[in-house]
Amino acid sequence: MIHWNFLSSLVIFLSLTDGYLNLGDTEILNEVYYQPEQVHLSYGARPDQMVVTWVTMSPVPESVVEYGIDKIDSNVSGTSSIFVDGGFLRRNMTVHRVVLEKLIPGKSYKYHCGSPKYGWSDIFYFTAMPDGTKWSPRFAIFGDLGNENAQSLPRLQDETMLGFYDAILHVGDFAYDMATDNARVGDAFLNQIQPIAAYVPYMTCPGNHEWHYNFSNYVNKFSMPNGDGTKFGGDNNLFYSINIGPVHIISFSTELYYFINYGLKQIVNQYKWIEEDLRIANLPENRAMRPWIITMGHRPMYCTNADKDDCTKFDDRVRNGMPFVKTFGLEELFYKNGVDVELWAHEHSYERLWPIYNYQVLNGSYEKPYTNPKAPIHIVTGSAGCKEDHDGFGPQKDYCAFRANDYGYTRMQAFNNTHLYFEQVSDEKDGKVIDSFWIVKDNHTSYL
């Protein structure tokens, strides 16, 4: 006869572990594993920087990157920290960060990471950011990529190896979820993207699926830059900006507007930071060098999906601000500061909007809506593939220019100060480009 206390304990255990019972957990916790894994790159705050981040499952006291152009002949040491996941098992791992500096612009480097005593990763390579603003950066952009049903991942891996991209912009929602199964799903996901992220900078923003334990897996595993290139990771992962060629990218957290149980102060801090960042980006000398201002945040202001997400409602929090008080909304701030493009995800579909402000379409002209548009252009690209499949659409709206719920991702290239090109790739249609358009702007300034 099974004792009632045992059954009660088992029910509690299963509830705490999301119903996941692994009888091998004791052996896993005792396993010794020093090999570097989950290797990924990110740009630093300065063009001469590249940040290498990796994980070891057992504590390794050294964090070293050996690198070079023709041969591996230089080395730099960095820092490490113990990350303890908030799940039932309290799994811990060591996160390593090394900042490479004084890189030669546009040069390709070989590197590996690890420790001369405990072991090295495979050899990878990357290209340092080209100098100045007179080059044409190429991006892959997507959100909502999971460990399971990562439909677009093989094609993105292929294209990265073929040199399609200078950087990746992952617009929130990783792994589904990074914290699932005591963070093992997050570990598996970061190993899945290693064939991309170990070769080109993988720039991120948080989504709602990173919420567990106050976004701790996301905050600890990635290494986004602060303003002066002296600190990486931590709260910098929530909001930051970076200059890439003629583009100024602002990454921020829409989730601060929804997970207010973690505090309201961060909403205020982020809003003030964005306000100041936009002020500096719009100084005449800065806007002349980097005229394209592009934002990336997870939850859209607008969408036409057949669900009850905020972007289907007029009172969207990110757009209008917090309920009732209507403060810290971002649409007016972006409009006033002449943001050119707003990148979003969250909806498991692709949608391109006409230039829009406050639900009013403000095309450049009837014949050429994206030539000198009178408001920002919104792109929702959350269909990279995850276990939650597609999101369907509701009725067509007049502000929607094109939409599709094929699995896929977006490509963007800033050709120069006046021409920005986008195309949407359908993985379901074997890589076919199902949408493409140019944005042409003679002047980049406030829309007021």
From TrEMBL:
<keyword id="KW-0732">Signal</keyword>
<dbReference type="Pfam" id="PF16656">
    <property type="entry name" value="Pur_ac_phosph_N"/>
</dbReference>
<protein>
    <recommendedName>
        <fullName>Purple acid phosphatase</fullName>
        <ecNumber>3.1.3.2</ecNumber>
    </recommendedName>
</protein>
<dbReference type="GO" id="GO:0046872">
    <property type="term" value="F:metal ion binding"/>
</dbReference>
<feature type="signal peptide">
    <location>
        <begin position="1"/>
        <end position="19"/>
    </location>
</feature>
<dbReference type="InterPro" id="IPR029052">
    <property type="entry name" value="Metallo-depent_PP-like"/>
</dbReference>
<dbReference type="Pfam" id="PF00149">
    <property type="entry name" value="Metallophos"/>
</dbReference>
<dbReference type="InterPro" id="IPR025733">
    <property type="entry name" value="PAPs_C"/>
</dbReference>
<keyword id="KW-0378">Hydrolase</keyword>
<dbReference type="InterPro" id="IPR008963">
    <property type="entry name" value="Purple_acid_Pase-like_N"/>
</dbReference>
<dbReference type="GO" id="GO:0003993">
    <property type="term" value="F:acid phosphatase activity"/>
</dbReference>
<feature type="domain" description="Calcineurin-like phosphoesterase">
    <location>
        <begin position="138"/>
        <end position="350"/>
    </location>
</feature>
<dbReference type="Pfam" id="PF14008">
    <property type="entry name" value="Metallophos_C"/>
</dbReference>
<feature type="domain" description="Purple acid phosphatase N-terminal">
    <location>
        <begin position="36"/>
        <end position="127"/>
    </location>
</feature>
<dbReference type="InterPro" id="IPR041792">
    <property type="entry name" value="MPP_PAP"/>
</dbReference>
<keyword id="KW-0325">Glycoprotein</keyword>
<comment type="similarity">
    <text>Belongs to the metallophosphoesterase superfamily. Purple acid phosphatase family.</text>
</comment>
<dbReference type="InterPro" id="IPR015914">
    <property type="entry name" value="PAPs_N"/>
</dbReference>
<feature type="domain" description="Purple acid phosphatase C-terminal">
    <location>
        <begin position="375"/>
        <end position="436"/>
    </location>
</feature>
<dbReference type="InterPro" id="IPR004843">
    <property type="entry name" value="Calcineurin-like_PHP"/>
</dbReference>
